[in-house]
Amino acid sequence: LKNVSLDNPGDKEVLIKNEAIGLNYIDTYHRSGLYPVELPSNIGIEGAGIIEKIGSEVSDFKVGDRVLALASGTFRTHVTIPAVLVHLWPDGGVTPWEAATWPANFLTAYRSLRDTGRLSKGETILIHAAAGGTGMASVLVAKALGATVFATASRDKWQVLRAMRVEHIMDSRTIEFADEIMRLTKNRGVDMVLNSL
């Protein structure tokens, strides 16, 4: 692990001492030279830890808060990031190692469906690649919001979605899902589409 400066964070930033980090496909692609975009040299895009310092304009957090963070270069002891990329650690006995794997998938799903898309109870959503990390997080968020989920995945992953109680599962390897959705919704279609491919 590499240390970073422990100086005071900027006005809208927080300094977090990492307890655990989540490694993702992007990290392995990046380190193997396969990722097509230049990324910072440090790996890690998400983590969980404790806030050690806060900027002068940060009001949502305090020193000592346990948090989840979506940040570049989390594979080090400390990370200084904008507070907007931080979320309070959920209650319920979640370990640091569990919490560290949530930010990229769950914050993406939560912000996409609730904040940006404003998905609400009774609406419908099509989630492509629903058996992947962001897809499964989106299924859980959509169901928590009271939406009806239509999901696509390769057939060998359907059992994962069935275990999540997704009623409408279609093959992601063909375009037949479009006609099936129209049939199931009596030609209404869906209110939202999330594509995490």
What does this protein structure show overall?
26% of the residues lie in helices and 26% in strands. It has 197 residues and is α/β, with parallel strands linked by helices. A five-stranded antiparallel beta sheet has the order 4-1-2-3-5. Helix 4 links the parallel strand 6 (124-128) and strand 7 (148-153). Helix 3 packs across helix 4. 34% of the residues are buried.
Give descriptors for this structure:
alpha/beta; 5-stranded antiparallel β-sheet; 4-stranded parallel β-sheet
Estimate the strand proportion: 25-35%
Percent helix range: 25-40%
Largest sheet: 5 strands, antiparallel
Q: Low-confidence parts, pLDDT < 50 over ≥5 residues?
A: none
Count of DSSP H/I helices: 6
Q: Say how many strands there are.
A: 9
Structural class: alpha/beta
Mean pLDDT: 88
The side-by-side strand order for the widest beta sheet comes to 4-1-2-3-5
